[in-house]
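@channel anyone free to eyeball this complex?
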Amino acid sequence: MCGIVGYIGTQNSTPLLIEGLMRLEYRGYDSAGVAVMTAGKGSGQGSGKGSGRGSGQGSDKVSEPAEITTVRRVGRVRDLAAAVPKRLNGTAGIGHTRWATHGPATEPNAHPHASADGRISVVHNGIIDNATVLRARLEQDGVPLASDTDTEVIAHLIGRSSADTLEAAVLEALTKIEGTYAIAVLDTAHPDRIVVARNGSPLILGVGAKEMFIASDVSALVRHTTSVIHLHDGELASVTATGYRTFTRDSDDTGRVPVEIDVEAGDLELAGYAHYMAKEIHEQPDAAAAVMRGRIDERFGTARLDGLNLGPRELRAFRRVKILGCGSAYYVGQMGAAMIEELARIPADAEPASEFRYRNPIIEPDTLYVVVSQSGETADTAFAVAEVKRKGGTVLGVVNVVGSTIAREVDGGIYLHAGPEVAVASTKALTTMAIAFALLALLLGRVRDLSVADGQRIIAGLRRIPEQIREILAGEAALADVAKSLAEAQSCFFIGRVRGYPVAREGAQKLKEVSYIHAEAYQTSELKHGPLALISPEMPTIALIPDDELTDRNLAAAEQVLARRGPLVVITNPGVDVAGLGAQGGVEHVVPTVVVPKNEPELDPILLTIPLQVIAYHAALNRGLDIDKPRNLAKSVTVE
Ligand code: F6R
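replying in thread with the prediction:
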């Protein structure tokens, strides 16, 4: 998704903007640009509208006319960096990575966008809903439009304001636009500041020494400062080299103070791995330990989740649990719902957050709503939170990014402590989400009818997970071989039953995201009701056959695949007899088999997911694809 960076201070902003944009690359984008304010430095009174071309170098003593130099390119940030003139030097600037929404990925559509007179420059994340009407009005007024974008109207509206200050001009423009936005605005008439505003799209200020940073994501500024302000929806800020003022759309000061974030620059490095996806897969043993740390009560066989802000009496009062998330987070929500039903014996289900608000959901006071999101910025999930709250429901968050929009909006929750996740394909965040749901299920169970002994059994299982993940990852070479056998496939099936079905869905999701192999997940029981028609020597099936009460039924389904000469890969536990598969039909089959360490049945899905991540990674590697930035995908989907 689109990314914003900004800088104002004493250094040349150009390399800082480019570096910030490179840090945002993982989010997905199709074009990028920067706008740098040159000259007029410190004067606070540039040449105003239609400023002439300045010398390119500012001076503290002489008030030179300010100008904005804009460079934009379709493609990678490195292409933009190559196009930026070496002499481009200015102490204030804004930059953007664009994910096309209004109009194709072209240079005129790339941000920053300028007002007709070139005085104003704007970068924008989000969507302006009434852009078509505003564009028509501007055209009627004779304003030449240079792009197909919604963002351009913001630049024109600010540029056409007769307000004395940039802050007032931005406020005036915001009264005319409807939609979501995070914006950063430069003005040659006020070269000593950048004005920013947020509504529905994340925006963060970073406080340095005589310098300020602006970003839509902390990863873009964490190398320079860990002292940040997460702006709230409806908030603006006027940012200068030496400070900032935050205020509402009614111009009331909000007096926001910075908080320290616990992300270290090193967390965002590849650390010797070829890809972030590989790094993050291998970080899972530590991430699994981190999400449990301090949250397990061995003696009483329960979990301590103080962040929920709900006591035992309140937890007991809930009669249902509804989990909401998008994509892989939704699939983990399905795993979580199964754990809650099994351990707490209360009805629980998961639903895509992206659909939720469109069906005018009935929000019940005795249902506990839980949203799940790595980024905490997924627009569809944030809208689901708003829908629950609007109708008076209680909503908790299972979130990775501390201080993110969703984390702030929910009534309580569980932070994942997985560390920053950079690869578009989520891995370690999902594993920690599943563990967080196991903890929640344990707690909900123990305030109901789950025995201490059963609680302690689950805890013992949870404690084994980090080591068992290590064991699975030690078998990476064999998983790479399995991936090789899939790399030529056009299409494949993932099948799993009951607890295994969300695992199958996530396995299919991961494979298609990074390797572009078409993959579909089915409940194993559904195979014979339709999909079996597609089984052929060209259609591999990855079957989840854990050692549980359904093993025999799963083996029987695998036989049906083999009988139709479908290539089969089995993901199973020690002791499950897969050697005899295929024998019934008298056909010799070598079935690639991945043996995953056994845990408690309720927790097995967490481990079964891990080899599927590794297989997806190696399938993409075999195909020579851009694993960390799959085509058409963004790390966090901050627009609807
Ligand atoms: C899949 C993936 C996406 C996200 C989904 C939700 O690998 O990463 O399906 O899970 O977009 O994102 P978050 O968790 O940030 O809300």
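from a first look: Residues 41-62 have pLDDT under 50 and may be disordered.
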